[in-house]
C-alpha cells in the first residue's frame, strides 16, 4: 500500500482486512469450515471470514460492548458473537475446524490457557492461526513499558514469542511455526499514528520499539494432530 499521502480511515480498515486475509490464507480457511475468532472486537473479521464460504462463524470477546457492536455490524445468519474469555472458551469440545485471533493475544493474561482451550475446541486435524505483536526476548517488558503507554498500563503484555510457541506445543499442537511480518506492519502503523487525531508522545514509539528489536508482529500457525482426542 502507498503510504505517501494522507491515510484515510478506509485505508486503515483495508490494512486490517489484509491482516485477516493473511491469517485466513495461513490457516487455510476452507469452504464449509466452522470458524472461531478469539478477541473478535467490533466484528470486522467475521465479514472477512464469510468471503471463504464457511458453514458457521463465531466470535468471542471479553468485553460485552464489543460483542454488542459486532452483533449490530453483522446480520448473516451464519455469524454470532458471544462474551467469553480466551482461557475459558464458551464452546463444546471439538466444535470448530479453525481457530484464529487477530491483534488480541497480546492482551491475554494466560497464553497457555488460550492454547489449551483452542486445542480443546478444535476437531482433530483442526487449524490454528494467530497474528499480533509478541516480544522477541524474555527481558523486553521493562523497556517496552518505558516506550509504550499500553505496556506501561498493562493493557498489552510482553509475551515472548518463544513462550507462545512452547505453550502451543504443550497444548498438543503440531507444526507450530512463527513468521515475523513486522516489515509489512510497523511503517504503516507509524504513519497512521503520526496522522491520527491526537498523536501523543508515546504513539510514535511502536516503530522505535520494533527497530530496537524489542518486539515484532508475528504470524503463528499450528495444527491439532489428526486422530488426537480432546
Ligand atoms: C485490539 S482489539 C482487536 C479486535 C479484532 N480482532 C480486530 O482486529 O479488529 C482486541 C480485542 O480483544 C479482546 N480481548 C482482550 N482480552 C481478551 C480475552 N482474554 N479474551 C477474549 N477477548 C479479549 C478485547 O476486548 C478487544 O475487543
Question: Could you give a quick summary of the protein structure above?
Answer:
By secondary structure, the protein is of the alpha/beta class.
Unreliable spans are none
Oligomer: single chain
- Shape label: globular
Structural class: alpha/beta
Sheet of most strands: 7 strands, mixed
SSE topology string: HEHEHEEHEHHHEHHE
Walkthrough of the structure:
By secondary structure, the chain is of the alpha/beta class. The protein has nine helices and seven strands; from the N terminus they run αβαβαββαβαααβααβ. The protein has helices spanning 9-26, 44-50, 64-73, 111-121, 141-147, 149-153, 161-170, 186-195, 205-211, and strands spanning 34-38, 56-61, 79-83, 96-102, 122-135, 174-180, 215-223. A seven-stranded mixed β-sheet has the order 3-2-1-4-5-7-6, sandwiched between helices. Helix 1 crosses helix 2, helix 4 runs parallel beside helix 7 (161-170) and helix 8 packs antiparallel against helix 9 (205-211). The longest helix has 18 residues, at 9-26. The termini are far apart. The structure holds S-adenosylmethionine.
Defining key terms:
230 residues; alpha/beta; 7-stranded mixed sheet; 9 helices; 37% helix; globular; binds S-adenosylmethionine
Helix and strand topology:
Elements: H1 9-26, E1 34-38, H2 44-50, E2 56-61, H3 64-73, E3 79-83, E4 96-102, H4 111-121, E5 122-135, H5 141-147, H6 149-153, H7 161-170, E6 174-180, H8 186-195, H9 205-211, E7 215-223
Parallel strand pairs: 1-2, 1-4, 2-3, 4-5
Antiparallel strand pairs: 5-7, 6-7
Helix pairs in contact: 1-2, 4-7, 8-9
The structure holds S-adenosylmethionine.
S-adenosylmethionine is lined by residues 16, 38-41, 44-45, 60-63, 66, 85-86, 102-104, 107-108.
Amino acid at each position: 500500500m502507498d503510504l505517501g499521502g494522507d491515510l484515510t480511515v478506509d485505508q486503515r480498515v483495508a490494512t486490517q482486512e489484509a491482516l485477516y486475509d493473511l491469517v485466513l490464507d495461513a490457516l487455510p480457511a476452507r469452504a464449509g469450515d466452522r470458524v472461531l475468532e478469539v478477541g473478535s472486537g467490533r466484528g470486522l473479521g467475521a465479514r472477512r471470514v464469510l468471503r471463504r464460504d464457511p458453514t458457521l462463524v463465531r466470535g468471542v470477546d471479553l468485553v460485552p460492548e464489543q460483542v454488542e457492536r459486532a452483533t449490530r455490524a453483522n446480520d448473516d445468519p451464519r455469524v454470532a458473537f458471544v462474551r467469553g474469555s480466551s482461557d475459558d472458551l464458551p464452546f463444546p469440545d471439538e466444535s470448530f475446524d479453525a481457530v484464529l485471533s487477530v491483534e488480541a493475544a497480546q492482551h491475554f493474561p494466560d497464553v497457555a490457557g488460550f492454547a489449551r482451550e483452542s486445542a480443546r475446541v478444535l476437531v482433530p486435524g483442526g487449524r490454528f492461526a494467530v497474528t499480533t505483536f509478541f516480544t522477541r526476548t524474555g527481558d523486553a517488558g521493562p523497556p517496552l513499558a518505558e516506550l509504550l503507554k499500553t505496556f506501561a498500563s498493562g493493557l498489552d503484555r510482553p509475551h515472548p514469542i518463544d513462550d507462545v510457541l512452547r505453550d502451543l506445543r504443550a497444548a498438543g499442537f503440531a507444526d507450530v511455526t512463527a513468521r515475523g511480518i513486522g516489515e509489512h506492519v510497523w511503517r504503516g502503523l507509524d504513519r497512521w499514528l503520526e496522522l491520527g487525531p491526537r498523536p501523543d508522545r508515546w504513539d510514535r514509539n511502536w516503530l522505535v520499539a520494533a527497530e530496537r528489536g524489542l518486539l515484532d508482529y508475528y504470524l503463528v500457525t499450528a495444527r491439532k494432530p489428526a486422530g488426537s482426542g480432546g
